[in-house]
Amino acid sequence: MIEQNTAAHLNDGTTPPPEKLLSKSVALIQLIVFSTIGLVMFFVPFTIGEKSTILFDHGATYLVTQQHTLSVTLLFLLMIFGVSKPFIDGSWRKNITHKILTVFKIIGLILAVMYITGTAPAFMMEADMLPFLFEKLALPVGMIVPLGALILAFLVGFGLLEMVGVLMQPIMKPIWKTPGASAIDAVASFVGSYSIGLLITNRVYLQKQYSAREAIIIATGFSTVSAAFMVIVAKTLGLMEFWNLFFWSTLVITFIVTAITARIPPISLFDDTVDRPDLNHERGKRLAAAFDLGLSTSRRATDLKHILWSNFRDGLIMAAAIVPSIIAVGLTGLLLAKYTPVFDALGLLLYPFTWLGGLPEPLVAAKGMSAGLAEMFLPALLLSEADMLTRYVAGVISISSVLFFSAMIPCVLATEIPLSVGKMVIIWFERVVLSILLAAAFGQLSMYMNWIG
Asked: Model confidence over 113-132: pLDDT tens digits?
């Protein structure tokens, strides 16, 4: 009943067929059932084989551990596709950023081949270098991101996303200085991907529905990595046992930091003029409006196979694009951290705040967290053996800092949003400092209350 026969849409005329809608009763059942499936799959831990985690993480773990050869084969197919795609669609020629990222993808694929064949130099084959990057990061990412995208279809494809967006509208402007419609960007980014969020933001900005300042707030404060990536960070840091606390506290901290950075330079200095109509709902009718929008979205969701496939396809494309660059940029960052003083120097700027936050080894923590500017996974990689408080803070930093050179910063530069690299680095620093202080405070409270530890 949910799926429609798309062949019936074909006709010989030039006028497109009328949109087919589900009945309200079926749409309501679909909205409730599929949204519940998504919520359960993402937020309810299940114990299987003495391991407690969310369901799709169990599936990805099974592939990586019990079907290792298959998962490695699938990963290489993803990387080959990710490396060849810029040449197939010509996107590598677009600008210098795309050329640099394409080079990193090629290097990442070469490094993966060298690791599998055992031909990499000895210093790269040390346990905390290529073996760690490939087995503990690239392989889980390659499996989890597509599976996570598939599960996300249940959260974003049947009306729940739109309902949340409408309900969030009254608090967006007073707290985050952005219009109510930006709630969709925020939720889409957090449960989907920063690339989707940036795509939405850039499109609305070009339509002159966002001011420059609003677009920058959304791009640098809402366009986080997805919940599927958060699973990777939590797994790397050994936080999956406390997944719900980690997820929701990170979400709250990230958006608190965004509310603060929206009010201080450099973001507060950008132009905030825009001409758009006020779309606020009448008082007392917001819940009804949210329900109506969610139901109408569900009524249009007539092709379950298409919704699932399009989300899964987006996950495959994203995984293919990021896995080879993660290996290349990740190895570069790890080598810089181990053999050069680059992150030591940057870490000195963060040291006063890790010390103020009460982290047991503040200088080590500051150095590891500073590496997040290169790649958002590096704090998790470098601090995976640290104490519980430092690991929790590093996990929050990996998400809440938002900006990093391996993917997010180039993506912003590829839009029309008026942000320079220098200003993004300043915003990154502000976000990391605020995140350290907030996450350290909440982490210590959580350990005192035995919520984690």
From this structure: 999 998 989 989 988 788 88
